[in-house]
From TrEMBL:
<dbReference type="Pfam" id="PF13180">
    <property type="entry name" value="PDZ_2"/>
</dbReference>
<dbReference type="InterPro" id="IPR001478">
    <property type="entry name" value="PDZ"/>
</dbReference>
<feature type="region of interest" description="Disordered">
    <location>
        <begin position="24"/>
        <end position="45"/>
    </location>
</feature>
<keyword id="KW-0645">Protease</keyword>
<dbReference type="Pfam" id="PF13365">
    <property type="entry name" value="Trypsin_2"/>
</dbReference>
<dbReference type="InterPro" id="IPR036034">
    <property type="entry name" value="PDZ_sf"/>
</dbReference>
<dbReference type="InterPro" id="IPR006311">
    <property type="entry name" value="TAT_signal"/>
</dbReference>
<feature type="domain" description="PDZ">
    <location>
        <begin position="238"/>
        <end position="343"/>
    </location>
</feature>
<dbReference type="GO" id="GO:0006508">
    <property type="term" value="P:proteolysis"/>
</dbReference>
<dbReference type="InterPro" id="IPR001940">
    <property type="entry name" value="Peptidase_S1C"/>
</dbReference>
<dbReference type="GO" id="GO:0004252">
    <property type="term" value="F:serine-type endopeptidase activity"/>
</dbReference>
<dbReference type="InterPro" id="IPR009003">
    <property type="entry name" value="Peptidase_S1_PA"/>
</dbReference>
<dbReference type="InterPro" id="IPR051201">
    <property type="entry name" value="Chloro_Bact_Ser_Proteases"/>
</dbReference>
<protein>
    <submittedName>
        <fullName>Probable periplasmic serine protease</fullName>
        <ecNumber>3.4.21.-</ecNumber>
    </submittedName>
</protein>
<feature type="compositionally biased region" description="Pro residues">
    <location>
        <begin position="30"/>
        <end position="39"/>
    </location>
</feature>
<keyword id="KW-0378">Hydrolase</keyword>
Length: 350
């Protein structure tokens, strides 16, 4: 059996070579021991970084029975929604580390749904800045607050849309220039900040409108309103004094317009600015099965900016004009494009 014996010897030799390839030789140094993972890493993710950098500036706003919403530190005060505190007899604020504070209401504005509270703010709760411009759609954001009373919560999402104008349930006016996000905004998030990944406030949560759709007060509007509320205790919203509808294809057809854009003045309000120069509708017609007002001015520009929709008009009015101003409006009147001078009034009490 010489052939078999030789094969066994070759197999044994091969096994020895394989063993040397997989094991350290006696003359080699042992590898250093593995470093155990840090059980308390400083950051698990960039979301954690932003959360930890901002959450101590966010507070629960309400009462000890749990009713209320959220707020955050801004310019030495706590900012929240007007509707969060509207039904509270005593306003309390609870910060991240558990401190309860009594709060006084400095000023409120129902139209922008904002309120400014004065309280003893802990040293660790720093003021959060408002962004200078709203970031592009698709920008990642975090919503901070107390959904369903669950304090110091966070949800992640993106800016889903800009220049929205959801209706205010109390005033019958829309809130202009709002920011849309798919970050979770649940009951209790109201008044809390929506922040960028830089930790800057790009919206103040105001309403959830369904799965993955929420709205936040524009930082541009908030800066205008909060500055006046803090300094004077009041803010006067600019007002054209008109009732309007957007120009849809049906409205354009009824009014012999070349394109469906702009807003049609249906009626001028009796509490509008003096010396009103805009004209309301003076007739109506049926298109299909829809009754459509006709003859009113169609506003396609205001203060040098194009107006394609009610949202455009509201944003220009809210961010660029003030009561007492006079500005130019581009209108289509009697089939002709004209530029007229229009006065800006102040909104009446809701």
């Amino acid at each position: 059996m010489p052939e078999l014996t030789r094969r066994r010897l070759l197999a044994a030799a091969a096994g020895g070579i394989a063993g040397l390839a997989g094991c350290a030789a006696g003359s080699r140094e042992s590898p250093p021991p593995a470093t155990p993972a840090d059980p308390n890493p400083e950051s698990q993710s960039r979301y954690t970084d932003v959360y930890e950098a901002t959450i101590e500036s966010v507070a629960f706003v309400g009462d000890e029975q749990g009713g209320g919403g959220s707020g955050f530190v801004y310019d030495g005060f706590v900012v929240t929604n007007q509707h969060v505190i509207a039904d509270l007899e005593d306003v309390n604020v609870r910060f991240r580390r558990g401190e309860w504070r009594d709060a006084g209401v400095i000023a409120t504005d129902v139209y922008a749904d904002l309120a400014v509270l004065s309280t003893d703010i802990p040293d660790y709760a720093m003021s959060l800045p408002l962004v200078e411009t709203v970031p592009p759609v698709g920008t990642e954001v975090l919503a901070l607050g107390s959904p369903f009373g669950l304090e110091s919560s966070v949800s992640a999402g993106i800016i889903s849309g800009k220049n929205r104008s959801p209706n205010h349930p109390v005033t019958d006016f829309s809130i202009p220039n709002t920011v849309q996000t798919d970050a979770g905004l649940e009951p209790g998030n109201s008044g809390g900040p929506v922040v960028t990944m830089d930790g800057d406030v790009t919206g103040i949560a105001v309403a959830g409108a369904g799965a993955n759709v929420g709205f936040a007060i524009s930082p541009l509007l908030a800066r205008r309103v909060l500055t006046e509320l803090i300094q004077t205790g009041n803010y006067e919203h600019p007002y054209l004094g008109i009732q309007l509808i957007e120009v849809t294809p049906t409205v354009a057809e009824a009014n012999d317009l070349d394109e469906a854009r702009g807003v049609l003045v249906v009626e001028t309000a009796p509490d509008g600015p003096p010396d009103q120069t805009l004209r309301g509708a003076d007739g109506e017609t049926v298109v299909g099965d829809q009754l459509v007002p006709t003859g009113g001015d169609v506003i396609v520009g205001l203060a040098g900016s194009q107006v394609d929709s009610n949202a455009d008009l509201g944003t220009i009015l809210a961010l660029e004009l003030s009561p007492g101003d006079r500005t130019t409006a581009t209108v289509i009147r009697d089939g002709e494009r004209q530029t007229i001078d229009v006065p800006i009034g102040s909104r009446p009490e809701p």
